[in-house]
Write a structure and sequence with these properties.
By secondary structure, the chain is an alpha+beta fold. The protein has 9 helices and 14 strands. The site of 7-O-phosphono-alpha-L-galacto-hept-2-ulopyranose (VTB) has 10 residues, from helix 6 and strand 8.
Amino acid sequence: MSSVITDDLALAVARAPINAAIAAARLVGRGDERAADQAAVDAMRASLNALAIRGRVVIGEGERDEAPMLYVGETVGVGKGPELDIALDPLEGTTLAAKAKPNALAVIAIAPKGGLLHAPDTYMDKIAVGPGYADGVVDLDASIEDNVKALAKAKGVSAEEVGVCVLDRPRHGAIIEALRSAGARVHLIGDGDIAGVIHCTKPETGIDMYVGSGGAPEGVLAAAALKCVGGQFQGRLVIRNEEERARAVQAGIEDLKRRYDLNDLVLGDAVFIATGVTGGSLLDGVRFAGGAVHSHTLILNAATKAISELRIRQPV
Ligand code: VTB
């Protein structure tokens, strides 16, 4: 049976991140993270509800009691059409948008029903590399030094030519130190580790590997992107207290210490779509000019292997 995940469906779904990005872009640089996020959520929800899909949010804005819109379990779409799992982050990098810093994105991934891990809202330890390496070239449980060495060897370069992206957080102090003493170049980002992971697939960014802990939901979204363009991703939930344990159990996670590979997070076909809110190394940001709004969107389809970029100029 052919996949329900067609390029036409991907194009239709793209309206959701595009509209979310445009809505959030009006609030870029205003220092109001909440307002920018809410605008993106409202626009994404309205767009999804206009689509001929039977969608279920598996990664969203939070659990039902804490998020009135796009909560986990919410159904979206007109109630006809393919049954889909939806993972979304209407504004990935709320702080980036509020401060007008690069790489704020509106992001969504879709898969046939049951195709995406329902990741709880906890941290996840992550490691990722781009395509073209033997399976298991890096390992979440190996030392930073061994991973840098293995990657350098596989790439045929010295460790000094390995670039690694890490979220700039005090909790990553030891990782950053170990990376530098192994010889690697460390690219620190303030926020947005979905973009951080995708950077590994783009040699021009100088980034070969992503390591560190970030949101588990963002881990599934990043894995969906890698599923489409190739690359490797491993992750493990970080459970720090009872509340997080309860959240994971509620999400249906049985083995809290499980190490997830790409294919455990995204089981089969998937589409990943991101629209730039602020411009950056992956996408241009939304721009208002001459009575029009310009947007830039990346659509990756694992089912058809199509990689599309959409530039839309539409009246404001
Ligand atoms: C992570 C990361 C996201 O926020 O969730 C991070 O995955 C939050 O980390 O991409 P801290 O709790 O350490 O601030 C992002 O960077 C942006 O949503």
